[in-house]
Structures are given as C-alpha cells and as structure tokens.
Design goal:
- The structure holds two protein chains of two kinds.
- Helix content of chain A is 76%, strand content 3%.
- By secondary structure, chain A is an all-alpha fold.
- Chain A has one domain (2-237).
- In chain A, strand 2 and strand 3 form a beta hairpin.
- The longest helix of chain A has 27 residues, at 201-227.
- The two termini of chain A are 33 Å apart.
- The relative contact order of chain A is 0.17.
- By secondary structure, chain B is mainly alpha-helical.
- Chain B has a single domain (3-127, 138-277), classed as ABC transporter involved in vitamin B12 uptake, BtuC, CATH 1.10.3470.
- In chain B, helix 1 packs across helix 9 and helix 3 packs across helix 8.
- The model of chain B has no long low-confidence stretch (mean pLDDT 88).
- Classes of the chains: A mainly alpha, B mainly alpha.
- At the A-B interface, helix 5, helix 11 and helix 13 of A face helix 4, helix 9 and helix 11 of B.
C-alpha cells in the first residue's frame, strides 16, 4: 500500500515539475535541473552505500566519466545528446563493474582507500590528457541537439532532465522492491547469512557498483549538457563527500531519503548566499551533525516524533 | 643516468619521502590503537603549517616554535578525540570514515576563512643555500627534515618499546577488552594515541612549509601518506616510515625517467595493486578482526 501511495505522490510531483518548468525563468530552471541531477546521483550512491553497505569515495568519478564521455561524443563525433547521454551512463556502468572487480574483495577502510585511489587516478587522467579533455582548464560542451542543426531549447532540455529523474526514481524504487534490492540489503546486513542462503555476495556487490556508477554517469551526462562546461574540480573528493552528505542527511538506504537529502541540500547554497564564505563549513557541520546525532537521516524524523509521542505517553502513565 | 644524478635523485626522493613517512606515522598510530583511520590527518598538517606561520610572524625563536607546534598539535588531537571521535568510536565504519573526513574539511574551511586561499611562503630555519659536497647539492631544509623524521621515528619506536603508555597502547591494539580487564585505561590510551598523532602531523606541517609553501591545499599530502601506510601494512611503525620513503623515491625516479603524468599516477596504481594483492601491506601482520 505505502509503495503505491509513494508512486502516486512521485508521479504528481514530477507532473507538476514538468508543467511548472514552462513558466519559470532561466535561473530557477537551472537550479531545478541541478537539484534533479543531484537526486539522480544520490539515488545511485544510496543503492551502493545505503543498501549494499559499501563505502564509496569515488561516486563523483563516475559522474566525471559520464560527463566527459557524453561531452566528447557530442563535441568530437557530433552525436546527438539522446545517444551520448546513455552512452556516457553505459561507460560509467562498465567502469563501475571494472572497479567492482577489485573492490568486492575489500571492505571498510580498505574499500574507502581503494575508491579514494580510483578517484585520484580518474582526476589525474583527466588533468594530464589535456589534449582530449581540456585538462584543468576544462572543456565546453556543445549545446544539445536532436540532430545536427536542431538545437534543444531550455525547456525541452529541462523536460529531459525531469524525465530522467523520474525514470531514476522509478527504477530505484523498483530495484529495491525486487529480488535485487533484497539481495543488496542482505549483503549489507549480513554477508555471511546472505551467502549461506545462496546469494552470491560477490555478484551482488558487482551489480551494486555497476548500477550506482550508471546513475552517476547519467547524472554526469545531464550535468555536462545543462551547464555546458565541465572541469575536473567539479568531480573531486569534495563532490563525492557532498553526495555522501545527500544520503546521510536524507536517509541511508531509502529512495525517499535520496530525493529529500539531495533536494534540501541543493537548495542550501541559495539560502546560505548571504553568508557565502561560511557555506563550506556549514555544509560540513551539517554532515557531521547528522552523523553524530541523526544517523538515519531526515526520513526517520517523522517516525521518531511519533515514537517520541507514544513513548512520553507511556512514560506518564 | 649518471651515478651523480641517480644519487642526487635519491636525496630528493628521501627528503620528500620523509614527509610522507611522518604523515603515514601520524595515520598509523591512532589506527593501531583504536582502529580509527583519520582521513582528516592531512588538514592537521595544514594546521601545523599555518601555526608555524603565525608563530614565525610573532618572531619567536625556532626551537620555541617547534615546541609550541608540538604542544598545540597534541592538544588539538586530544580535543578532537574527546569531543568528536569518542562518541562514534563504536559506530559503523562508514560513519567513522566520513566523520574524520568531515573533521578535516572543517579545519580546512576554518583555515581558508581565516587566512584566505593564496599561498604564503616561509623561510626554513637554516636558509635555502644548498650545501655542496662531492658534486652533490643538499638543501639544508631537506637535510633538517630527514634528521627530524629519523628522530621522531626513533622516539616513537622507543615509546612503544619502553614506556608504560607505549606498552599499554600495544596491548589495546591487540585486544582492547583484555587490556581493559588487565587494568589499562583504554580511553586514556586513545587520548594519547590521538595526541601523539596530531602532534606529529602538525610537526610535519611545520617542516614541510618552507619546502612547498603554505596554502589550504597542503592537506592533500595525506593521499601519499595513506599509500605509504598501506605499503607499510597500517600497523607497523617502521613499515610506515619505509613506505613513506619508498613512495618518495618511486615518485622522484618515475618522474625523471618516465614523465610527470606517470609520477602522479604511480602512487595510486600502487595503492590499488597493493590493496588487491597484499591488503595488509609488505610489513603488516595478518588481518586484525575487530568485531
């Protein structure tokens, strides 16, 4: 029942977003685009970290792979965006599986170190092959086009982002309510028990890495098209930590958590504009505060309040 | 490559490597004691460098600067341990990894807020005129860094071998519960481990400041320090130091022989390979399960 209500709410939200976009100015549209791209990235990371329980510090690298792949396919081969973006996501998924091969043997801090190493390798490759990627100066991405000559205006591009985000939310929800989702959770809760019940832990972890990379790659490809410019600093370790903040603040292992966390924190820079120089510190303090005091995120706040009310009633009796 | 050049490169490699060795030591000590890997250690180094800058502008004599950096570094670590680490020490590993990262970012944010992002240079204690002998040139600051690293390493080895607290720390790293039952105060072991680690980190910042200049990005040194710690196996003091020197040498030689792209890539390729094939490093003991 709650699942069905959830999809109904989701469908309504995306329909409203799609219609509202027609009446918004360019800056609000841009912000909504970025927020939805963050939601897509957070959904992917949450499957890997929240559900399968694997630490990843290189989610932003898969975003970089998607972004650069999409940008290069468009700029060098003149591909239309609707081929280049899925191609970028597939490339990220492939490399995610490749990283997964060594990563499935590691856990905890060793996995954190391996993913940190992978992030550095991607950063260095992007910076050193300046002839292809533009290096530290970045590269500009051609305006998205349906085919050579027919450019996509701002609103249709926004609709593409809305559709991708809706698709990402829908698939993530379905994955979690399917066998794959239960396997992901089983691997987090007890790899030994999962293995004993016939779940191949190695395969599940590999699937998780690849899936999460695909989401990140999709987000990266969209980002390249929406912003029109990419450079390696966008995809560093601080970007990875920002995405981790999304899921920690929203709620680990929950689709609603990814959506809420990414949306709230995407709006935060706008709220913090008057105290811009403090925004990094505030952002980090929020992450630390949630880790220390509310490790299950915003999605559990409502539940906790209800429990709290019941608890005090019982206490007073 | 001539013999002189090879030797000159070895000197350069060892002098960068000894900084990596100090950072690796600072990472290994609290990990050994409490199983917490401090991903914010790089920012402790940055803080040490800025502390050195502030103290030098106050015109304090160098030995006093060293002492103050050590003491404040240690106090900072004790404070972080008490306020932020102790509440989460038994939390899932994910929480600890991200929390230590976040602590580092807070320090970095505070520093760039106070001092800005532009780099500042600071003079070494012995000037920058290279000492020459037998066709070799040695920067006095590099020589000083090497001497200090050797001294810190020996002090730490002696600490673990001979002092009560050092032995207690080893006992806790083997089995915290058993150590506690033997009357060791585990919480004070953790406090000491953090204090020593951040003191070494801040000292590394003081040492490295004249060589690479002071800016909020110094903390990225931690990446090389982590590679060094992995080579050393995460639980061995000598391993960490040898790992640091190895990373420095490998970087320097591959930079000259192959090129700068490879120079930057090599430590991380090495990291991935080691994690896959020898996750407990070249010097580490077999896996310590923490349940």
């Amino acid at each position: 029942m709650p699942m069905q209500r959830g999809s109904l709410v989701g469908a309504c939200v995306f329909a409203v977003l799609a219609i509202a976009g027609a009446f918004l100015g360019s800056y609000p549209t841009y912000l909504l685009n970025l927020a939805m791209i963050n939601v897509i990235a957070a959904l992917g990371l949450n499957l890997l970290t929240g559900n399968a329980g694997q630490i990843s510090l290189c989610h932003s690298s898969f975003m970089a792979i998607g972004a650069y792949c999409t940008a290069l396919l468009t700029a060098r081969l003149g591909m239309p965006f609707w081929i280049a973006i899925p191609a970028g996501a597939s490339a990220a998924a492939g490399l995610g599986a490749l990283l997964g091969l060594p990563a499935i043997r590691l856990k905890g801090i060793y996995l954190a170190l391996a993913t940190l190493g992978f992030l550095q390798i991607v950063q260095i490759l992007v910076e050193e092959f300046a002839g292809v990627t533009g290096g530290v100066r970045g590269m500009s991405v051609p305006k998205p086009a349906f085919y050579a000559g027919l450019r996509v205006a701002q609103y249709p591009l926004y609709l593409v982002v809305v559709a991708c985000c809706a698709f990402a939310v829908w698939t993530a929800g379905n994955i979690l309510s399917s066998r794959v989702g239960r396997e992901l959770n089983a691997v987090r809760l007890s790899p030994h028990a999962a293995q004993a019940l016939g779940v191949s832990v190695a395969r599940v972890k590999l699937v998780a890495f690849s899936l999460s990379a695909a989401y990140a790659g999709l987000a990266g490809g969209l980002l390249a098209n929406v912003v029109g410019f990419i450079d390696p600093t966008e995809f560093g370790v601080s970007a990875s930590l920002r995405q981790i903040t999304f899921i920690v603040v929203g709620g680990m292992g929950s689709v609603a958590g990814s959506v809420i966390g990414a949306t709230v924190l995407s709006g935060l820079p706008e709220v913090l504009r008057p105290v811009k120089e403090y925004s990094d510190i505030i952002y980090t303090a929020i992450l630390l505060g949630f880790l220390l005091f509310l490790p299950h995120g915003l999605v559990t706040v409502g539940e906790r309040l209800r429990m709290g009310v019941i608890g005090t009633r019982q206490g007073s009796e | 490559m001539t013999g002189t050049l090879a030797f000159q490169l070895a000197i350069a490699g060892v002098s960068v490597g000894s900084i990596y060795a100090l950072v690796a030591l600072a990472i290994v000590i609290p990990f050994k004691a409490s199983g917490v890997l401090n991903f914010g250690q790089g920012e402790v180094v940055t803080a040490g460098a800025y502390l050195a800058l502030v103290l030098t502008t106050l015109a304090l004599p160098y030995p006093l600067v060293v002492v103050v950096v050590f003491v404040l570094g240690a106090l900072g670590g004790v404070l972080i341990e008490r306020v932020l680490i102790r509440p989460i020490v038994s939390a899932p590993e994910f929480t600890i990894v991200i929390a230590t990262f976040a602590i580092g970012l807070l320090i970095k944010g505070a520093i760039s807020l106070r001092f800005g992002d532009s780099p500042v240079s600071i003079d070494g204690p012995f000037g920058m005129v290279p000492i020459e002998f037998a066709n070799l040139r040695v920067n006095p600051t590099s020589a000083w860094i090497l001497v200090c690293t050797a001294a810190v390493t020996l002090a730490i080895i002696a600490f673990f071998k001979y002092t009560r607290m050092g032995k207690a720390m080893r006992a806790v790293s083997i089995n915290a519960e058993a150590a506690q039952l033997m009357g060791i105060r585990v919480s004070s072991v953790y406090r000491w481990a953090w204090g020593i680690s951040t003191a070494i980190g801040a000292f590394a910042g003081l040492l490295v400041a004249p060589v690479i200049g002071i800016n909020p990005e110094i903390g990225s040194l931690i990446l090389r320090g982590l590679v060094a710690a992995v080579i050393g196996g995460f639980t061995s003091v000598t391993g960490a130091v040898i790992g640091g020197l190895a990373v420095g040498l490998i970087e320097t030689y591959s930079g000259v022989l192959i090129g700068s792209a490879v120079k930057n890539l090599v430590p991380f390729l090495l990291l991935l390979l080691l994690l896959v094939f020898r996750p407990y490093g070249l010097f580490g003991a077999a896996e310590i399960k923490r349940v």
